[in-house]
């Protein structure tokens, strides 16, 4: 059994037990942690972190920037911007997505718009549980 | 003339009572805020500790990188001083002591032959330094009362940018440490360059109880490079939160003293007023008595003199 903590600069925003934690690191692709995993520190991509609870349920958290540290039976996710599905404003994410797409259509090299599109996509994916 | 002094005193008591109401209200507000600010400062601890713990593990893993935030300048030409003060006054010595410590840093820089760069947070420090014609390079207000991480990130970015671009070679952070409700202390800390990862690791209060060597992804260097800016932000955020808690604690104490003083003053003035009133009454009675005596002096002479006369006659 894992102890999972999502630590934001302001507080500990999620804390619970888990069978398995799935995250995506930059460059590294998806990685799943189960109890007994080697101590691990990774930089997270703009992607979701899935926490599989002992009762089989799944909590999905959108992590926009952060780190994961796995040590012993503890997984800590450090993130200054993270949201769980319930906190996401779908309408706003959709609006942000269309704005970003429009900006990208006008200028394909607009990095801000690309980042904003990635964030909006992630939000929508987490919110809709897709 | 009688009653004039009394009236003046009564008015003064009224005004002191009004002041007391205000200071009492401010004291109560500060008391609730200090608890909230303290909770926030406590809630923010895990993040800073976790980041430190990751750096500890990185140091243990032997990662050392040539990151711009670690740059040690050979000669310090310009010292950045970040000072955290409040926007509002009436907080006792809170602002003056932190400002004094910051000014000392500026003087230190000058005596080393270096220039200074002031990064000011809070109206009070701005007013002080602007009045004395110090050059203020960056000023932020409206965040010291209830700082958010976003605020900390913005200021930290400005500072880190000035440092990485070589506009300042060293940055000192002057803020007020919150030790407990009853005790706060002005602290001056080296903000940039960051100490080497080993120093952070040995000084840090991280909870890295984990043993064994870590796997890093993508690489220890990449993790560290991504981590250091966050570490800077988290440190500034921690300092902002502690300063906010200290500000409220100081204000609460100052306002409690003011309320107590007002109470004392009211007691003293009431006593004075009562004496003035009694004096006035005594004077009035004397006036009445002597007036009555003057009017009825004939009757009285008779009644007093009669028995005497009778006695004399007997």
Overview of this protein structure:
The complex is a heterodimer of chains A (130) and B (314). With 130 residues, chain A is an alpha+beta fold. Helix content of chain A is 27%, strand content 46%. The longest helix of chain A has 18 residues. Chain A is elongated, with a radius of gyration of 15 Å. The model of chain A has no long low-confidence stretch (mean pLDDT 85). Chain B is an alpha/beta fold and 314 residues long. In chain B, helix 1 packs across helix 5, helix 1 runs antiparallel to helix 6 and helix 4 packs across helix 6. Classes of the chains: A alpha+beta (130), B alpha/beta (314). Chains A and B meet through strand 5, strand 7 and strand 8 of A and helix 1, helix 4, strand 6 and helix 6 of B. Strand 5 of chain A pairs parallel with strand 6 of chain B, so a sheet runs across the interface.
Topology:
The complex is a heterodimer of chains A (130) and B (314).
Chain A lengths: L1 E6 L4 E7 L1 E6 L3 E5 L6 E5 L2 E6 L5 E14 L2 E11 L5 H17 L4 H18 L2
Helix pairs in contact in A: 1-2
Chain B lengths: L3 H57 L17 E7 L9 H18 L3 E7 L1 H9 L4 E5 L8 H16 L5 E11 L2 E10 L4 H7 L11 E3 L2 H76 L1 H17 L1
Parallel strand pairs in B: 1-2, 1-4, 2-3
Antiparallel strand pairs in B: 4-5
Helix pairs in contact in B: 1-5, 1-6, 4-6
Question: Quick recap of the structure?
Answer:
The complex is a heterodimer of chains A (130) and B (314). Chain A has 130 residues and is an alpha+beta fold.
Query: Ends of chain B: how far apart?
Result: 51 Å
Output the CATH topology of the largest domain in chain A. Answer: ATP Synthase, domain 1
The domain tally of chain B reads: 1
Q: Estimate percent helicity of chain A.
A: 25-40%
Fraction in beta strands of chain A: over 45%
Q: What multimeric state do the chains show?
A: heterodimer
Q: Give the low-confidence spans of chain A.
A: none
Q: Spell out the CATH superfamily of the largest domain in chain A.
A: F0F1 ATP synthase delta/epsilon subunit, N-terminal
What does the largest sheet of chain A look like?
8 strands, mixed
CATH homologous superfamily designation of chain B: ATP synthase, F1 complex, gamma subunit
Order of helices and strands of chain B: HEHEHEHEEHEHH
Overall geometric form of chain A: elongated
What is the CATH architecture descriptor of chain B? 3-Layer(aba) Sandwich
Number of helices of chain A: 2
Q: What does the average pLDDT of chain B come to?
A: 87
Structural class of chain B, please?
alpha/beta
Total DSSP E strands of chain A: 8
């Amino acid at each position: 059994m894992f102890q999972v903590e999502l630590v934001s600069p302001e507080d500990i925003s999620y804390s619970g037990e888990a069978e398995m934690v799935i995250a995506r690191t930059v460059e590294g692709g998806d990685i799943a942690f189960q109890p007994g995993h080697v101590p691990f520190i990774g930089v997270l991509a703009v992607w979701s972190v899935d926490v599989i609870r002992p009762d089989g349920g799944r909590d999905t958290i959108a992590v926009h920037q952060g780190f994961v540290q796995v040590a012993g039976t503890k997984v800590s996710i450090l993130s200054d911007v993270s949201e769980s599905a319930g906190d996401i404003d779908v309408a706003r994410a959709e609006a942000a997505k269309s704005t970003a797409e429009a900006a990208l259509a006008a200028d394909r090299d607009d990095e801000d718009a690309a980042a904003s599109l990635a964030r909006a996509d992630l939000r929508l994916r987490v919110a809709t549980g897709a | 003339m009688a009653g004039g002094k009394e009236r003046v005193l009564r008015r003064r008591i009224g005004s002191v009572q009004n002041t007391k109401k205000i200071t009492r209200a401010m004291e109560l507000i500060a008391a609730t805020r200090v608890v909230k600010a303290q909770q926030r400062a406590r809630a923010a601890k895990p993040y800073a500790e976790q980041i430190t713990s990751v750096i500890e593990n990185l140091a243990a893993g032997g990662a050392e990188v040539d990151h711009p935030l670690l740059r040690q300048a050979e000669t310090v030409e310009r010292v950045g001083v970040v000072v955290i003060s409040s926007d509002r006054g009436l907080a006792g010595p809170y602002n003056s002591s932190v400002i004094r410590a910051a000014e000392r840093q500026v003087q230190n820089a000058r005596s080393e032959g270096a220039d200074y760069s002031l990064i000011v947070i809070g109206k009070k420090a701005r007013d002080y330094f602007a009045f004395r014609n110090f050059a203020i390079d960056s000023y932020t207000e409206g965040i010291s009362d209830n700082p958010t991480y976003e605020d900390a990130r913005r200021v930290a970015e400005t500072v880190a940018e000035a440092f990485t671009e070589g506009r300042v070679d060293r940055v000192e952070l002057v803020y007020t440490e919150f030790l407990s409700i009853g005790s706060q202390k002005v602290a001056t800390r080296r903000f940039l360059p960051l100490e080497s990862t080993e120093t952070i690791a040995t000084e840090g209060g991280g909870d890295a109880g984990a043993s064994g060597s870590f796997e890093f992804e993508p690489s220890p260097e990449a993790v560290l490079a991504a981590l250091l800016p966050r570490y800077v932000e988290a440190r500034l955020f921690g300092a902002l939160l502690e300063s906010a808690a200290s500000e409220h604690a100081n204000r609460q104490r100052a306002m409690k003293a003011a309320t107590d003083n007002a109470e004392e003053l009211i007691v003293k003035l009431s006593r004075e007023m009562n004496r003035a009133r009694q004096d006035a009454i005594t004077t009035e009675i004397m006036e009445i008595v002597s007036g009555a005596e003057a009017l009825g002096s004939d009757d009285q002479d008779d009644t007093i003199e009669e028995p005497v006369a009778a006695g004399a006659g007997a």
